[in-house]
Amino acid sequence: MKSGTSIGANMEEATAAQSKADFISKVQISLKEARETNYWLRLLSAAEIIDSSKLTEITNESDELCRILGSIVVSAKNNGFAAGRIGDRG
Predict the structure, then answer these.
(1) How far apart are CA 65 and CA 59, in angstroms?
(2) How far is residue 85 CA from its own chain's centroid?
(3) Cβ-proximal residues to 77 (8 Å cutoff; 6+ apart), any chain
(4) Domain map of the chain by residue range?
(5) Is the pTM of this model over 0.85?
(6) N or C: lower Cβ tally within 10 Å for the chain?
(7) What share of the chain in percent tops pLDDT 90?
(8) DSSP letter at 19?
(9) What is the pLDDT, as a whole number, of residue 4?
(10) pLDDT digits (tens, 9 = 90+) for 47-83
(11) With 90 as the cut, is the pLDDT of residue 17 above it?
(12) Which helix (H) or strand (E) holds 53?
């Protein structure tokens, strides 16, 4: 629960980043938390605490989130950074 909710909290902080480095740092923390969440989901399945069939969809979504966050980090490192535009929804 902790690592899963930390992903969104760090992405929210990234939207208010003060610099490119700050933005990348927050997104990288989100990525690490997403990977940790994947670990816990795999552990829940392997330990048969939760039936693996019930975890399939959420595990797939978590994997996709890791790919998205990884892509954001790569893009931010390769491209520019516009603090006012990060998180814009309009």
Answers:
(1) 10
(2) 19
(3) 24
(4) 2-77
(5) no
(6) C
(7) 70
(8) S
(9) 80
(10) 989 888 889 999 999 999 999 999 999 999 998 654 4
(11) yes
(12) helix 52-78
Q: Which residue carries 């969440």 as its tokens?
A: 37
Scan for tokens 């997104």, then name that residue.
27
Q: Which two tokens stand for residue 30?
A: 């989100």
Extract the tokens encoding 38: 């994947």
CB atoms within 10 A of CB 44: 17
Question: Whole-angstrom Cα distance, residue 54 to residue 76?
Answer: 35
Helices 52-78 and 20-46 pack at an angle, to 10 degrees, of 160
The CATH architecture of the domain made up of 2-77 is: Up-down Bundle (1.20)
Mean pLDDT of the region 1-14: 89
Residue 50: what are its φ and ψ, rounded to 5°? Answer: -130, 135
CA distances from 28 to 36, 38, 55 (A): 12, 15, 25
